[in-house]
Write a structure and sequence with these properties.
Shape: elongated
Radius of gyration: 50 Å
Distance between the termini: 126 Å
Structural class: alpha+beta
Mean pLDDT: 82
Number of strands: 10
Helix content: 10-25%
Number of helices: 3
Largest sheet: 6 strands, antiparallel
Order of helices and strands: HHHEEEEEEEEEE
Strand content: 35-45%
Low-confidence stretches: 6-16
């Protein structure tokens, strides 16, 4: 049988009971957060967001790096003889001239160094058509090579002056034909501009030996092959 000693007896025997732990010194529950730690977490989150806001978003950087760059495409040179031939209707006063242009040299052979022929065929009508005759006194062509930077030195003028007076009869159904040659041009030229000038004489009356002079001009652009 165990004998129970009174509290006083225990104290007397030298046993001192452990002091009670104050409530303030007890450890906080695991789910609780101290104010200092919460403030530190909030400050760190704010710093992270601030740094991220100063730069470019990752998706923006990816889009920027993947954007293709544009490449300038040279403007194609127009070619009035690309179809092999062309026809123009020119008017000078009472005279209407119909001119056909063509080349016997294929367009892929129109290089800077080649001799490039250009042929013309012309007929005219006059208004009113009451018997006035029309004569071609002079036909000329000048070739001006050029590139995207501008015109280059022009070639010499080529002219066909009538060898009969008052000129070549060109009133329909009579026609005029001629071939001019475009000589070598600088290697940097990408096209040539052909400038044509036609001088006509038309009778002042159907039986008159007096004539009125009319001049008409025309221009063709022909691309050069590499």
């Amino acid at each position: 049988m165990i004998a129970l000693r009174p509290r006083s007896a225990a104290l007397a025997a030298g046993h001192t009971p452990a002091p009670a732990t104050p409530a303030a010194a007890r450890p906080a529950p695991r789910h609780a957060r101290t104010p200092t730690r919460a403030l530190a977490l909030a400050a760190g989150l704010a710093l992270t967001l601030g740094v991220a806001g100063c730069g470019t978003a990752p998706w923006d950087e990816a889009a920027a790096s993947g954007t293709p760059t544009s490449t300038a495409v040279p403007t194609p040179v127009p070619n009035d003889l690309s179809g092999g031939a062309t026809q123009r209707t020119l008017t000078a006063g009472a005279i209407t001239a119909t001119v056909d242009y063509w080349s016997t040299l294929a367009m892929d052979k129109w290089t800077a160094t080649a001799i490039k022929p250009v042929s013309i065929s012309m007929t005219t009508t006059v208004t009113p058509d009451d018997g006035h005759k029309v004569y071609l006194q002079r036909a000329q062509m000048q070739a001006v090579p050029a590139n995207a930077g501008g015109s280059l030195p022009a070639l010499d003028i080529q002219a066909d002056n009538a060898t009969v007076a008052p000129g070549y009869l060109v009133l329909d159904p009579y026609s005029y034909s001629q071939t001019f040659n475009v000589g070598p041009v600088p290697a940097e030229a990408t096209y040539v501009t052909l400038q044509f000038t036609y001088d006509f004489l038309v009778q002042t009356t159907p039986t008159s030996t007096e004539y009125a002079k009319q001049t008409v001009t025309d221009t063709l652009t022909v691309a050069l092959s590499d």
